[in-house]
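1st attempt posting a full record on here, be nice pls
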Amino acid sequence: MKREAASPLTQPINLQDRLGKLTAKRQEILRPVLEQPRGFVLLSVRAMAKRLNTDPATIVRIVQVLGFASFREFQKHLHDLSIAFATSADTMQTGGSDRSRYAYVVDSIDRDLKNLQGLKNTLDGARLNDLAKRMYSARRILLLAGDLAAYLAGYLEYQTSLLGLPVFAATSPGRIGHLTRSLTKDDLVIAISFRRCLRQTVEGARKAREREAHCVAVTDTFLSPLARIAHETFLASIETTSFGASYAAPTALLNALLAACGQVRKAETMEIVREISEEQRHGSRWFQE
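the predicted structure (as tokens):
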């Protein structure tokens, strides 16, 4: 991902900072677009102008004042907004048009496959490998998450603990506050949250950045507040055709990170894996007839 490294040059335009440059009349023209970006993202300049009861030239001037180089760039921003502010009702309404029996089952799997393909096409393997190396060199690894994303943090914590890495998951406001308080520049923080992001995760990442820990964001859009805070960002779509969120792509991203971790110190990993294998074959916790 060419834009994943967070820096002043790559951060997206913050519309809230730019809206004040518009006249009150033009702010009112733009208001429906910002309130319902999903309904405008696919419209041409002319179609958008017609929907807003104005002319195409006015739309172009608004886009320019907001700091976008082109209308296409503005459309991309609207697409990111529609992701960041998506609700369960939005995702349910974007289901496939095929109303054949049980079509929603195929639609769901197709959506997951598209999310996975998007991850495959954009993921920078070298950057992910560098993150795996940083995990081994970190004094401590802190995973910040909450709500449904807590399962991703727990999954990554469990898997990396097999390798003996000093990893801790924080998924409640209190634990996030306690664990971020003692962070240093030698620590690594991976913050996981999607769409608008949970407050506890964002505030934890902000505190980690203040403590000079290296911060990594796992989210689904560069408009995410985590992307603005973190040193680097990895994107994985959670789009779904149903009422929830699909974690197929985020889980695949974590699996790719685990694969990279397994190769950093392969000899050590193989020793651990052999010991684990013995337990898997003969351990008392496994059911036997």
